[in-house]
Amino acid sequence: MNKLSLATVVASAALVMAVPAHSAEKEFTTKVAIDAWFPDGKVGSKDGAVRDNDVDASQAFSIAFEHPYPILPNVKVRYTPVKADRFEYDQIDYTGYYKLLETDGLQFDVGLTLTQFANGEFNKGGSVSTDPAQPANQSFSETAINMYADA
Fold first, then answer.
1. Cα(82)–Cα(91) distance, integer angstroms
2. Which is nearest to 60 in space by CA: 37, 42, 41?
3. Residues 60/32, Cβ–Cβ less than 8 Å
4. Which of 47, 71, 111, 141 could be stapled to 148 by a disulfide with Cβ–Cβ 3.0 to 4.6 Å?
5. 18-45 confidence digits (pLDDT tens)
6. Spatial contact of 98 and 73, defined as CB atoms under 8 Å apart
7. Residue 11: its pLDDT value, please?
8. Could you give the 3-state DSSP secondary structure of residue 30?
9. Residue pair 39/79 in contact by the 8 Å Cβ criterion
10. Cβ atoms within 10 A of the Cβ of 52, count?
11. Given pLDDT bands bounded at 50, 70 and 90, which one contains residue 108?
């Protein structure tokens, strides 16, 4: 066997033997979370009237997958249904993030989020303006890109 082949076999064997010891420190993590928020809003108009637009308590459901590979981003998906008297929509966030700092007491993540607003209806049950040409109910589905940070 020539020296190059022997060196290749020895290097490959050392790498294969080192991988289990190295990956024992690393781990894959799945995080599941449920959040709740209680928003309240008031809407004003031209004639000075103020309407309450209470939003039901909204729950947000999320799942995150974290892995030991530093080049690939971790991923998180979050779903939030929002329902109120005059509007409702579903918000789905797709987030790719990196862990910049992780200690026993502190964690800091940054990344990008693609937010999808789906099944949106605005102004349910009546028109905001007195213009009869403006439809009473309006629907929307939009997408936005946001910066993500979590500490």
1. 8
2. 37
3. no
4. 111
5. 444 444 456 899 999 998 877 666 665 5
6. yes
7. 52
8. strand
9. no
10. 9
11. very high
**With 0-12 CB in 10 A as exposed, 13-18 as middle and 19+ as buried, what is 49?**
exposed
| Number of Cβ atoms within 10 Å of the Cβ of 143 | 11
CA torsion 86-38-34-91 (nearest 10°) is 30
d(CA 109, CA 102): 9
Residue 55 tokens, joined: 């939003």
Phi and psi, residue 76, nearest 5°: -145, 135
- What distance in Å separates the CA atoms of residue 120 and residue 125, rounded to the nearest whole number? 14
Q: In the 8-state DSSP scheme, what is residue 45?
A: -
Plot region of 125 (φ>0 → left; ψ -120 to 50 → alpha; else → beta): left
